[in-house]
Amino acid sequence: MRLAPVLILSLLGCNKTDPTEVEAQPVLLQAIGGAMLANSEVHPQIPVRVGFDGTADSVMVAGPGGESEAFIEEEGVYVAWLPTGTESGDLTVTVAGPEGQATTQAELVVAAEGAQLTDKDVEGIATTPALHRDGDALWGSWCDKSEDTGSCWARELDGAGRWQGEAVRIVPDDEAVLYARTAAGGGHLAVLYQLPDGLPYLNRVRIVDFAGAEVVAGLDVHEDGWQGTFGGDVAYDGEGFGMVWRERSTTTTDARIRWMRLDADGTQVGPVTVAESGDGSPVGGFPIFGFVELAVRDGATLVTWVQDEFSVPLDLAVPKAQFAVLDATGTALAKGFLGDRAGFDWDQEAHAGIANGELTALWTADDLGSLDNPIPTEIAVRTFSPTGDASQLRASVENAPDTRGEPAIFHHPGHSGVVAWIDHRTYTEEEDGRIELHVASLSDALQARPALIYPHARFFAGLTDLGGVLADHNVLLTWRDHRHNVNAAEMWFETVWISP
Known about the structure:
Elements: E1 2-3, E2 6-7, E3 27-28, E4 35-38, E5 45-51, E6 58-63, E7 66-69, E8 71-74, E9 77-83, E10 89-97, E11 100-111, E12 115-116, E13 126-134, E14 137-144, E15 151-157, E16 163-169, E17 179-185, E18 188-196, E19 201-209, E20 214-220, E21 226-228, E22 233-236, E23 241-249, E24 255-262, E25 268-276, E26 292-297, E27 300-311, E28 316-326, E29 332-337, E30 345-355, E31 358-367, E32 377-384, E33 395-399, E34 404-410, E35 418-423, H1 426-429, E36 436-441, E37 452-454, E38 467-471, E39 474-481, E40 490-496
Parallel strand pairs: 4-11
Antiparallel strand pairs: 1-12, 2-11, 3-5, 5-9, 6-7, 6-10, 8-9, 10-11, 12-40, 13-14, 14-15, 15-16, 17-18, 18-19, 19-20, 21-23, 22-23, 23-24, 24-25, 26-27, 27-28, 28-29, 30-31, 31-32, 32-33, 34-35, 35-36, 36-37, 38-39, 39-40
């Protein structure tokens, strides 16, 4: 792993409170493993959050770029707007109170281009990168498909995007694996992985612990006569793991989306069929490289996908974003279209997540009635209750010139959500266009506030695997990056500092 071009702080990353002076101890809430990452070009100032349960007369935060006194955000939480600077160095919190003084330190790494986690020449071609939280720990997982004997790995990280310890293999040693969708919870990783079987693939699922030891042996999820296709998703529901995948018949043109739930004790529910292809009158098939995703909350599962629907006015099949809300047994509580079934929207993708505590569907849509060239791609959103009730109106998260896609949404304690996506607007607005990484918090109306743009990222549209996790109020992102080779992706890492 390299930080590029980095300025690395030599911070202790541990608390230095003298218990004889102050009973309470300050905590840097955004640090993981005593470290944090900041991109000074995007974040000239960062909101540093300090937890302190005692009585404080003042809370000072000092870093290499300067110092600032923190203000009280809520009981027990203080926020200091700290100049990031361009040099890495100690970030120190000093709390003065009636009982004396206490300090704590963490490592702040300043990096203008994020953190590189894998190297195409060392770890191989990275696929399906993901970040996970296991208690206070941060883990990354990825697959290497550069060899015929592809493999998938997990390894612990600190908050600055630096590997800790050794990588552990999370798929069987004797199986060549191309891709693995992963989720963490309860001290375990669920791994929905794909084996090459010509094309399409064979899907299996297993559960391991964070040492790589097998907890539930690999299960074939397909019935006889069926094979997997592109995509799939897995999520932890607080007790077990839900998963979805798309598959096709080996003898006909039939295809379907399936859901299953698996606990660490081996208890299994399903698989059950969520959606099936039709003959095109009006229900059609699924895109070859279409996403299928899920999100879980309060025992309910939201599944999202895109499927063709024949449009009589247009006299052609039009892809439409669709959803299903399932109960804990896989029974559908609600199914339908995310947008207007009869409208002129050409839906590109559909994604699922949690925002503002609600099951949330995101999808991208091009209005075929638009006179613009290229047609602007809108990111739209709807929320759902655990009983399947949908918000009555869709909200427009973002609508700007040219194309945007692969949005990922995150629940956030300080906003209605945070959305990250890849954006193509510079191809229309500038002579030298590029695909950029945009991240924005959402208003109460679920509309994107002005986006933060991270210009160093380089993408292959449609295959970014953009995702991440929270570190208190920060969003930690990972994706497949192509800055070093358009044909060989690497796993990269960035920290988004979200303003209060």
